[in-house]
Specification:
Blueprint lengths: L1 H22 L13 E4 L10 E11 L3 H11 L6 E10 L9 H9 L2 E10 L10 E8 L3 E8 L6 H4 L7 E3 L2 E8 L5 E8 L6 H16 L5 E6 L8 H4 L6 E2 L12 E3 L2 E3 L5 E6 L1 E8 L16 E7 L1
Parallel strand pairs: 2-3, 9-10
Antiparallel strand pairs: 1-4, 2-16, 3-5, 4-5, 4-7, 6-8, 8-9, 10-14, 11-14, 12-13, 15-16
């Protein structure tokens, strides 16, 4: 009885604290979190020599989105055919200046953009509308067949997010789209963000939803993003059985838990990945850029690969 009373008291305290946060969002303009935003800022023809570069980057809300754009600009000099898969990209959130980060990056880079909400954030102080974050795909080439994969729940942030000071609504999400290359070829790409608070089975269950979607779309495919999975996870056994190759097999260069050290970022664990199907890997790299102030751009670093279609 004492434990039950203590638990009830704790819940009451939490509701008192969290109540104003939740209530404060009700009068704001909201939008359907499962409807992707698709916009075009591609301003010129991008040359394509048969190579396609894919960069996957968890940008930690986009506090330093201009530095992310500068990094991408430097890497797409060769090859210019570069697709960016972004996770944790804020939209209209007070913490990042009420900027639609993916839109501003697409404008800066002259790319097409697709974006979908992952979580509505109840700690946002933007007065007019909801602040959220999500996944985006940026491409200099047209995007078709944009789809949203709302992942099965393996950890409820809506229920437990207040523990980390992140009261929110939504679920982990992957955004898919088909990139139409100047050659007429099509490559299916996915910007993924899997659950950090899940065991390896839970991460595979979420990844299997992406693979199932890809199986319905034959041809070249790339899945990239913050998988939150370590090099010995279950998915590395399962993915080859589904025809997907680990682009970074044998390269466990760390990508998460990053901090500045000297003239580059230094990271602690490998949790960001790219996997592919029906493509040849020409180059792969984990890059360690810093922001313009000498700190890290994000608590993750980008993974990058150059492919050739088979």
């Amino acid at each position: 009885m004492r434990k039950s009373a203590a638990a009830a008291a704790m819940v009451a305290v939490i509701m008192i604290i969290a109540g104003p946060l939740l209530a404060g969002k009700k009068d704001k303009t909201t939008w359907d979190i499962d409807t992707p935003v698709i916009e075009s800022y591609a301003s010129s023809d991008t040359p394509f020599d048969g190579r396609l570069q894919v960069i996957a980057y968890n940008i930690e809300r986009g506090f330093f989105w201009e530095d992310v754009a500068d990094y991408v600009e430097s890497k797409r000099k060769d090859p210019p055919a570069t697709v960016l898969l972004i996770s944790e990209s804020d939209r209209n959130h007070s913490r990042t200046g009420e900027v639609f980060v993916a839109r501003e990056m697409a404008r800066a880079l002259g790319m097409n953009m697709a974006f979908v909400t992952e979580y509505i954030e109840y700690n946002d102080e933007t007065p007019e509308n909801q602040g959220d974050h999500g996944n985006a795909i940026l491409s200099p080439f047209p995007l078709e067949d944009v789809t949203v994969i709302r992942h099965r729940t393996v950890y409820s942030w809506e229920r437990w997010g207040w523990i980390d000071g992140q009261p929110r609504r939504g679920e982990r999400v992957t955004l898919g789209a088909t990139v139409v290359l100047p050659s007429g070829d099509r490559v299916r790409v996915y910007s993924a963000h899997l659950e950090s608070n899940a065991e390896t089975l839970g991460k595979w269950l979420q990844m299997s939803q992406i693979v199932e979607d890809a199986e319905g779309r034959p041809g070249p495919a790339v899945i990239g993003g913050d998988f939150n999975e370590l090099p010995w996870g279950l998915m590395w056994t399962m993915l080859p059985r589904k025809g997907m190759e680990n682009t970074f097999k044998g390269d466990n260069s760390p990508t998460g838990g990053c901090r500045p050290e000297g003239d580059k970022a230094r990271c602690a664990i490998k949790i960001d990945w790219i996997v592919h199907r029906d493509m040849t890997v020409l180059e792969r790299s984990v890059d360690y850029p810093l922001n313009s102030k000498g700190g890290v751009i994000s608590d993750h670093c980008p993974v990058r690969a150059v492919f050739e279609l088979k």
